[in-house]
Amino acid sequence: MLPKRVMEANMRLNKRTIDGLSVKEKDYFVWDETLPGYGLRVLPSGRKTFLIQYRDGGGRTRRKGLGRYGTVTAEKAKEKARELLGGIAHGENPAEEAKRKRGAAIISELCERFMSDYVPSHCRESTAKEYRRCMDLFIKPAFGTVQVEEVQRSDIAELHHKHRDKPYQANRTLGVLSVMFNQAEVWGLRPEGTNPCRHVRKYEEKKRERYLSGEELSRLGQTLADLKTEGDESRSAINCIRLLILTGCRLREIQTLKWEYLKGNSAFLPDSKTGPKRVYLGPAALDVLAGIERIEDNPYVITGKLPGSHITDMQKPWRRIRMAANLEDVRLHDLRHTFASIAVGSGESLPMIGKLLGHSQVQTTARYAHLADDPVQGSADKISEELAKLMASKKFININN
């Protein structure tokens, strides 16, 4: 029940009448005689606040403040009151809406709920790590304290533009935000169909294509052999790189490879980026596996420092190894590209290469199609040379004469 006031009066609220209102021992209300429901509250402290009063759908009396007099003018307050009272006539409830907004989730809270309630059952561990990285480095610093429903498309576009010098990162962050806001709609934290990431265009990403030449592969092989002999690098790191080259696998597939997955000349991975996958092992890969010591109570082929663990950080050893081999612009993932380039150069078809790499879509393998130009060019050169020999022969000349 609302407390009783000293008095309630009616008058036309404007600067002159408001300035003339006296302060009393208890607060009281003055209502505008030209706009029912719009009024002013005067406190014993002298503070005067604009408000509206109305009945909600359940018949309860509700009030909503419109701002303090002095900060808000009488004209602006009345304009806002007229707008809100018009909405109330159509079933809106501004006081309840304000209450809901005060308790609404902010982006940092949405991030944590997304990571705990959505990600574990929908994403792989590597994806979860990338999501966490995007949230901690880019999303929370930009929107952490902003209410979920208050984020606008212009805000998303501004963040995306801010990182335009790193198109890949800008696009990944946009992708995380899009999935997160879709889920916010599912949870009722935003109205349906209001994902602010819609129509924000991703930047064009130039796919990096780096393949090791025969000479570079030879140099890397010699470097790995020297490091193994000298003991300057861990055997786990060396074996990991050898298997990456010889199988075309993704890094995590080799890092988490278990002995139990190996059957004959294949490795059956229960999970990969594209789901369960069979890796076909050639003689050289089998030789590497045969030379790896099995450690008791450790199920992994490429073991880590802790008991029962697999190697987790390959970036640091790879930086040392590539420097020693003078291949400082080569990434670990480029070893997978090199496997594909050698396969194309050997005359393998794109569907076969896709099968070897474990691609789920033909379009993914198609990026290697242009590499087939080299063997085709080689055939063209041979045919051209043969034709030139014939054309230069006396027999060919005599026929033309």
From TrEMBL:
<dbReference type="InterPro" id="IPR044068">
    <property type="entry name" value="CB"/>
</dbReference>
<dbReference type="InterPro" id="IPR010998">
    <property type="entry name" value="Integrase_recombinase_N"/>
</dbReference>
<keyword id="KW-0238">DNA-binding</keyword>
<protein>
    <submittedName>
        <fullName>Tyrosine-type recombinase/integrase</fullName>
    </submittedName>
</protein>
<dbReference type="InterPro" id="IPR038488">
    <property type="entry name" value="Integrase_DNA-bd_sf"/>
</dbReference>
<dbReference type="Pfam" id="PF00589">
    <property type="entry name" value="Phage_integrase"/>
</dbReference>
<feature type="domain" description="Core-binding (CB)">
    <location>
        <begin position="105"/>
        <end position="185"/>
    </location>
</feature>
<feature type="domain" description="Tyr recombinase">
    <location>
        <begin position="207"/>
        <end position="381"/>
    </location>
</feature>
<dbReference type="GO" id="GO:0003677">
    <property type="term" value="F:DNA binding"/>
</dbReference>
<keyword id="KW-0229">DNA integration</keyword>
<comment type="similarity">
    <text>Belongs to the 'phage' integrase family.</text>
</comment>
<dbReference type="InterPro" id="IPR002104">
    <property type="entry name" value="Integrase_catalytic"/>
</dbReference>
<dbReference type="Pfam" id="PF13356">
    <property type="entry name" value="Arm-DNA-bind_3"/>
</dbReference>
<dbReference type="GO" id="GO:0015074">
    <property type="term" value="P:DNA integration"/>
</dbReference>
<dbReference type="InterPro" id="IPR025166">
    <property type="entry name" value="Integrase_DNA_bind_dom"/>
</dbReference>
<dbReference type="InterPro" id="IPR004107">
    <property type="entry name" value="Integrase_SAM-like_N"/>
</dbReference>
<dbReference type="GO" id="GO:0006310">
    <property type="term" value="P:DNA recombination"/>
</dbReference>
<dbReference type="InterPro" id="IPR011010">
    <property type="entry name" value="DNA_brk_join_enz"/>
</dbReference>
<dbReference type="Pfam" id="PF14659">
    <property type="entry name" value="Phage_int_SAM_3"/>
</dbReference>
<keyword id="KW-0233">DNA recombination</keyword>
<dbReference type="InterPro" id="IPR050808">
    <property type="entry name" value="Phage_Integrase"/>
</dbReference>
<dbReference type="InterPro" id="IPR013762">
    <property type="entry name" value="Integrase-like_cat_sf"/>
</dbReference>
